[in-house]
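S.,

As promised, the 2,5-dideoxy-2,5-imino-D-mannitol run. Input:
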Amino acid sequence: SIVSPLLRTGYHFQPPMNWINDPNGPMYYKGWYHLFYQYNPKGAVWGNIVWAHSVSRDLINWIALEAAIKPDIPSDQYGCWSGSATILPDGTPAIVYTGIDRPDINYQVQNIAFPKDKSDPLLREWVKPGYNPIIVPEPGMNVTQFRDPTTAWFADGHWRMLIGGLRDTRGMAYVYRSRDFRHWVRAKHPLHSALTGMWECPDFFPVPKSGQNGLDTSEFGDKVKYVLKSSLDLTRYDYYTIGTYNNKTERYVPDDPNGDYHRLRYDYGNFYASKTFFDPAKRRRVLLGWANESDSVPDDKAKGWAGIHAIPRKIWLDPSGKQLLQWPIEEVEQLRGKPVSVGDKVVKSGEHFEVTGLGSYQADVEVSFEVSSLDKAEPFDPAFSNDAQKLCGIKGADEKGGVGPFGLWVLASANLEEKTAVFFRVFKDGYGKHVVLMCTDPTKSSLSPDLYKPTFAGFVDTDISSGKISLRSLIDRSVVESFGARGKTCILSRVYPSIAIGQNAHLYVFNNGEADIKVSHLTAWEMKKPLMNGA
Ligand code: DQQ
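Predicted complex:
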């Protein structure tokens, strides 16, 4: 049955039971990483929302603490919704979050909280000053679509933070400014807006124009670009643009004039309400995101849990300046067991082979492919230029192609009646340029009923003229989190096999294209289970 305990993830973040959604207020404080998250203490469906709290030394092993922020003042009594942390110049962390202050409608205000004891590195207790709420919607604003404050940044004597909103059908990143972090005034113009519907959980941060380091949110200057991310309530995906920010005019301008509608995504799968933070210990920016279940609500109730977080990802600007790159934080590699390697192995058209010698239900797989020739690449229909997902829905993993589909079958049963395909397929456009599609096809992932099994896909902006492309997949019982071309395109997918669970899960490399491919090298590791909140 789908409620098999073997489908519970082993090394992806989750509490021992119940519902979780957005990551909130991530920060590094006195040697500890703090992660708060939207949590229902009473069940496996959304509701009764508090900020649950976990701490970690490495973002992989987690210790659960008491919930940090619960409804207990008038301005948050009906819910403590998403928000962010800012470390003030004297080292004090401040949390700003959305409170629901009335029962009948989701009227949204913003509240602040501080640690009771700053000398406690675990920041176990939080206090809410009596001057809450600090921000309320103004007359004429959409009071039920006004939430999710960002980490604040400082320049020219002022703090600024963003609050997500909706004006008619326009998604808004409202700017609020303050000198003292207590009195906040809205700037006349939003930082940015677009005709996309509500912007949930905005995120705004600087990235260096070159290199992989991260920057504190208040860094500024010539060597820096900016990233603005919003979580679109309408599509339930996280989109970002890269651009410039002027702190005099308080405006952000995406480099790509159509960027707001071009839809660059952190992840082309199940990944929402994400948030980054600057990790001063490793001078990197880390991205955290929520992956919802794709089974049914009755199944969630039967399991007693719903929702996980993705493996934290380091993010930085691609040398092209046109997109971000993402890679699982290096700390996850401590979970790797004995490596299993395959090298220099040709996979002919229509063939596949199994990778054995590990429990691949909980594994990390890195593979480098080399295509024998690109001559057979199928013509690319420009009608799909903006719709990778649709293209992959038509040309799934079992649909024979010229160059590809080739890739991995993960969480596969011995007879292949269950398998989740993660693969590439190469096309050639009218100008002779190759177009690379990356796809996760879960349509055969399970024989169980009542599952949501969408095909997820994104294009990979990589030069494949050498024939080479890499893939990494983090497999964890009911999640497959994949990184194409060293983090250019990422796809997280939730799947619920009925046979391919535990030791009955197999791993294969397949090639359903006409052109032979070669696995130059593949390494797979079974992954150990970290400390996971006591579960
Ligand atoms: N989840 C929170 C909201 C946010 C939404 C409520 C995004 O603050 O807009 O649980 O998933």
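The radius of gyration is 23 Å. The chain has a mean pLDDT of 97.

- D.
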